[in-house]
Amino acid sequence: MFGKKKNLSEEEISKKPSEALKILRTNIENYHGYKELELRRDSDVAFRTKLLTIMRETGDMMSQVHELLIHSQLLTSWGPAGIVMKIVSDMRKETASTDYKYSTFFDVKEVEGEHGIDLSILYLLEIDILDNAEEFKDKIVDVKIKLEEMMLDTVEGNIASLMNLSSSVQNRFNERNELLRAFEKMKL
To answer: Please, which pLDDT band fits residue 10 given cuts at 50, 70 and 90?
Structure first.
C-alpha cells in the first residue's frame, strides 16, 4: 500500500520527494502535503486519522489475541501481550490528540528553506510509520490465526516480534511528532 508494498526503497523515494508525497496522497484521503499553509493542518489530521484507523483495528485484534492466549493458558505470553496492548492503547491516544506544543509549523507560510525542514523527510517518516503499522497489523492477524488453529509452538516468538513491531511504530511516530514539535521558524 505504501512505500514497502509498492517495492520502493527509501533511497528511491528520497531521490524523488514528489514520489513520497504522491504515495501519501494516493493512500490517504484529504492528504495534500505540508507545503501549503492552508492545507497543512488538514494533511496532518488526514495522516493521523489513517494511522488511528489502523491502530483501532490493531487494538481490537490484539485484544482477541490476548483472550486467545488466556484461553490457551500460555502464561508466559500474557505479560508481553499486555505490553503490546498498552503500546497500542498509548498510540491510539496520542494519534487521536497529538499536541505539538509551541511549534510554529502550522502557523508560518514557508516551512522549507534555510531555517526550515526538508519535507521529504517528513513524508518518508509518514510512509515508514504507515508501512510499519500495516506490517504490525498483518503480524497480529497471523498470530491470531495460529492461536485459533492451536499452533502454539511459535507463539512466544511471535509475541516477541509483536513487541518489536509495536515499539517500532511508536518510535517512528514519536520521531515524526518531535520533528513537528521542534520546528521553529526564525524571522530575521
So the answer is: low
pTM comes to 0.84
Q: Does residue 91 sit in helix, strand or coil?
A: helix
Give Dmax over CA atoms of the chain in angstroms.
Answer: 65
pLDDT tens per residue across span 111-159: 887 767 888 889 999 999 999 999 999 999 998 888 888 877 777 888 8
DSSP 151-165: --TTHHHHHHHHHHH
Using DSSP, state whether 10 is helix, strand or coil: helix
- Cell numbers 521542534 correspond to 182
Contact of 167 with 135, CB cutoff 8 Å: no
Contact 105, 177 (CB under 8 A): no
Q: Rounded to the nearest 5°, which phi and psi values hold at 80?
A: -60, -35
Q: Residue 77: which of 15, 133, 154 has the closest Cα?
A: 154
Cell of 109: 507560510
Cell of 61: 485484534
Number of residues that make up the chain:
188
Angular region, 101: left φ>0, alpha ψ -120 to 50, beta rest = left
pLDDT tens digits, one per residue of 58-115: 999 988 888 887 877 767 777 788 888 999 999 999 999 877 877 888 888 888 877 6
